[in-house]
Amino acid sequence: MGKKGKKEKKGRGAEKTAAKMEKKVSKRSRKEEEDLEALIAHFQTLDARKTQVVETPCSPPSPRLNASLSTHPEKDELILFGGEYFNGQKTFLYNELYVYNIRKDSWTKVEIPNPPPRRCAHQAVVVPQGGGQLWIFGGEFASPDGEQFYHYKDLWVLHLATKTWEQVRSPGGPSGRSGHRMVAWKRQLILFGGFHESTRDYIYYNDVYAFNLDTFTWSKLSPSGTGPTPRSGCQMTVTPQGNIIIYGGYSKQRVRKDVDRGTQHSDMFLLKAEDGSEGKWSWTRINPSGAKPTPRSGFSVAVAPNHQTLLFGGVCDEEEEESLEGDFLNDLHFYDPVRNRWFAGQLKGPKAEKRRRRRGRKAEPGGADKQAAKGPSAQEPLEVVREVVSEDGTVVTIKQVLAAPGAAGQLESDDDDGPEEAGVAPVEPSPRSNAMLAVKHGRLYLYGGMFEAGDRQVTLSDLYCLDLHKMEEWMVLVETDPESQEWLEETDTDEDSEEAEGAEGGGEEDEDEDEEEEEEESGEEGGEEHPSVAPGELFADYLPRTEQHWLRCARDSVGPGAPERRVLRAAQALAQAFYDGSAEGGPREARFPVA
């Protein structure tokens, strides 16, 4: 009796602590979210000026991650929405809608009036009713420096038949968040987890909500049993039996001031509607067998034709006191909910290439570029270095020497002197995290994502396809060259030195030079309309609420006692940098109505 009482008391204490933390985060983030709300509202005003649907054939979308890739329920199409991109200095957010026609291998940009605001790390679910509907909830908008965030709690539906966006306003839904997961279950949308982050604090969630697609109402579920701890970025899929699986995810907690410790979860839970009822749910922890994926975050998930869950890639982080290093992955894993078992996805290699050539034969000249896209063979011996992560997390480096052409995926060690045929390294997506996956007609499509090379973040825009029935080889539909991607180094030192010079003297000359540069930039633009800011508008005209915010940030930046003129210059620079990164199409002048 006593032990049970203590356990219940401890549970209530944890709930109170979580509630206090959520209130604390909400209070601190309210001000910065108000600053971003004005910018978001301005973008929505500009989007509202579009009065008709415009469909434009286009090249593949620009690099991005944390977008959503969905399959059309009736057509051979993939739908890409939102996402983010970081070029080393600024973060760009998108609310663009692209459609990929599978049969024609072509992209179309679809501009629809009144779309959801720019966002990333949202969730998108397709349901078949009404000619197809794409439901979107939550996500986040970030300032260009990545230090401020606005977390959405809005719900949108794209009516695919009529190509119209609609915001569905219903009370009692989840709080603003990103990194959550959402699935279609019967005639409901079930949402789990996610996180909310402000400049100083953050909170992770493990709550469950249901949205009824018939009544358009939210309800918060209270499953019995012990469920997952708060987390984001987990796997959430529906089993053939009508249950919901939650696997893995990521969360972090503060161990001391300014030091956080991340956790890559690898546990699995079953969320079940008791007796098939939609009102009563229960949590059960399950322990699957088989070749389990190594702990990771940022992995991507899709559902295979046989109702198995497919998991791709991600990153395995190694955290030290003041540093974070990650090993990016590109492996495939399948979870069979009927057998409660994991198994690794192994590619067989193309049948037509097997036993075609012997080791030591030279490849025929010509067509090298086309061969490279289909799983080519090398004309010269090739040393391939691969890192394999074992189940316990150990990284094993394997060196292989591949000579003469052969079957893709049939790698031969340089220790093997036998007459076996050798193949080259198979064509496959590079290791990455936060990619987008979708399955259509038994084929897996993979788009974009990111990986890190030193201090550089490489964002991808490639598109791959894998036949899940044959499991032979990846096919490259859109190639990308990471080396050609723009990467801007930070220039904080230069900006600080310029501000210092302005504070010490020579201010009038600096102002004259700034005005000349502005005139030159204006002349170069040639009056071209900015896609996010109408010509002739000034910063104070469309963001009057944030003027004091920029002045406050500037005073924190330059320090107490700084001359007011220097504070104004710093505020101008901060506001300008913000607008440069929050709108597409290049810089935009931002001035304060202060002398």
TrEMBL record:
Biased composition (Basic and acidic residues): 11-24
Top-level taxonomic group: Eukaryota
Region (Disordered): 1-33, 346-380, 408-431, 482-541
SUPFAM superfamilies: Kelch motif (SSF117281)
Residue ranges with Acidic residues bias: 482-527
Biased composition (Basic residues): 1-10
Name by which UniProt lists this protein: Kelch domain-containing protein 4
Lineage, opening ranks: Eukaryota, Metazoa, Chordata, Craniata, Vertebrata
